[in-house]
Amino acid sequence: MNAEIDATSEKFLRGKYAIVGVGETPYTRGSGTTTRALGTYAVRRAIEDAGLRMDDIDGMLSYSGNDSIPSTAVAGDLGIRLNFYMDVMGGGSSTEALIGIAMGVIEAGMCKTVVIFRSMNGYSQIRIGGTGRGSGASNLSGDGLFGRAYGQSSAAQAFAQTFMRHMYDYGTTPEQIAHVKAIHSEHASNNPKAYYKHRVTVDDVLSSRMIVKPLHLLDCCVETDNATAIVVTRMDRARDCKHMPATILSVVGRCCKPRIDNHYQAGPISTVAGHYAKEILWPNAGVGPDDVDLTGSYDAFTFTTMLQLEDYGFCEKGDGGEYVSSGIMRLGGARPNNTSGGHLCEGYTHGMNMVIENVRQLRGEIDDSCPTDTNGKRQHTYDYSTGGCRQVRDPEITANLGWAMPGTGSALVMAKGER
Amino acid sequence: MPLQGEYLGMSVAIPDVDRPNQEFYTHCGQGVLHLQSCVKCTLLRYPTTTACPWCAESEYVWTPVSGKGTLYSYGEVHHAIQPTFQQFTPYLILLVELDEQRDLPNRFDGLRINGNLADASGEMAKPELVATVGIGSRLRVVFKSIGDSMAIPLWTLDTEIKQEAPWRYPDN
């Protein structure tokens, strides 16, 4: 793969933008407050983390599924006067897509520094599976006749056909896939913020009750209440921020398979949008999968992590089951995935917590339980046993692989410091 | 007047402005599955769309299809979300590849129809029947009336042929 990539030529905005601030609320079930208060908290934390003042921010982006609050509410609460804002529909795959939009609007001269947030009471108010929206007796009409009429309304019910077909096409086994949860739970045990901090085994996954075959309960992610935020700005401003910039090498936003109105009509259905997105991601980044030190492959389900790693070229097509069960994704392995515990364990944020984690990894400032020195800087032990360290040794390049559904994905490659 | 009906306790309403869906479900009510066929490139498509996904032509004619196909993939729901489906678990959400237009217009493309496994009369399948169906099963369409001359398409095992053993999720 690397041989095909020309890393010498500058592509698009490679290296010219960075993530300079990250922040989040606690991950809870029952925040006891509004999405407005959660969003405001996370946005303020991210701006303070960047070492910026509220009036350094003049752009804002958010995404939701009609389960959140608009940018104008958060900006108003924090006294931020906006030169640009937009609130878009969407869940997973939005984080990376909005990072690209932020770069574009700054490049267009529309504003200077953008904060992106996702705020949701995903457990106590609107649950993604439909519970809390009155999904019961509502009218069947239009597209609903092709889905909800057949008891197909949740993500698990909509994606199962992709997962099952991958098992059929490539011999992928339930045991292989269960490793994703087991490994992410190891990582979460070293993450004081994680909602689920206990380690589980492959057997625990396989013996948990079936939700939608092939998905057991523990193949599915947690639902939580939380807000997350990141700050994006141009490199000339990033240099003056508090932390070493997480430099953006490449970004892909909501790249789609053919027939995205009903993607099961097209192509092998065991192939996902990453198959197309990788043709944008790697050439623009100037690096390839072999150069990546850690990944953030979206884990709404165990299968989504596997499918994306495979289609972005981290292994041969069809070898995803072998890849995720090989130990490579484990802390201490060659290319850890979702070191925070991801959606399966840390909390559900539609992708943003996985970007936040990789920003902190690149800084070398993961918030684990390792002791701090007199300056407050954490002294990482690289002992990855329960309750220990989760900092990866000197990571240079990270890749985030965001998932909306089998037919749509986004991705982001970041590097440590200015390139 | 919108076409109105009811299916499994869920109300159905297809407004007049949604002519393609009114026509799709009315054809089902007459007992033959029809798909839109593009007047320009003649390709069939599913589900209903407002233009041809391959040539962007908006005109179409309804074309009857065999209503037979092979199970391409499925999910087996044990935890229902919609209250009305809780009585049917485990139920199958099927992706049935029709015999028509396989690997067209591109390799691995096909007409893959959503639906549930049902018995020959269109009632949701019992667990004993669910346990016999997997990828490769040969299925035929059955219709269940939903009122106002409409019906919803469902799928049942084709008993007129000898079935090969299908691929199923490996149960422990």
Question: Could you explain the architecture of this structure?
Answer:
The complex is a heterodimer of chains A (419) and B (172). Chain A is of the alpha/beta class and 419 residues long. In chain A, β2 (59-64), α2 and β3 form a beta-alpha-beta unit. The relative contact order of chain A is 0.19. The mean pLDDT of chain A is 95. Chain A has a single domain (2-126, 223-370, 380-416), classed as Thiolase/Chalcone synthase (Peroxisomal Thiolase, Chain A, domain 1), CATH 3.40.47.10. In chain A, the strands form two sheets. In chain A, strands 3-2-4-7-1-8-11-10-9 form a nine-stranded mixed beta sheet, with helices on both faces. In chain A, strands 5-6 form a two-stranded antiparallel sheet. Chain A contains twelve helices and eleven strands. Chain A is globular. By secondary structure, chain B is mainly beta. Chain B has one domain. In chain B, 9% of the residues lie in helices and 37% in strands. Chain B contains two helices and ten strands. Chain B has helices spanning 19-29, 127-130, and strands at residues 3-7, 10-14, 34-38, 44-45, 60-64, 68-77, 91-98, 112-116, 138-147, 150-157. In chain B, the strands form three sheets. Chain B has a five-stranded antiparallel beta sheet. Chain B has a three-stranded antiparallel beta sheet with strand order 4-3-5, with helices on one face. In chain B, strands 1-2 form a two-stranded antiparallel ribbon. In chain B, a hairpin with a 5-residue loop joins β3 and β4. The longest helix of chain B has 11 residues, at 19-29. Chain B is globular and about 45 Å long. The interface between A and B is large, with 52 and 50 residues. β5 (210-213) of chain A pairs antiparallel with β6 (68-77) of chain B, so a sheet runs across the interface.
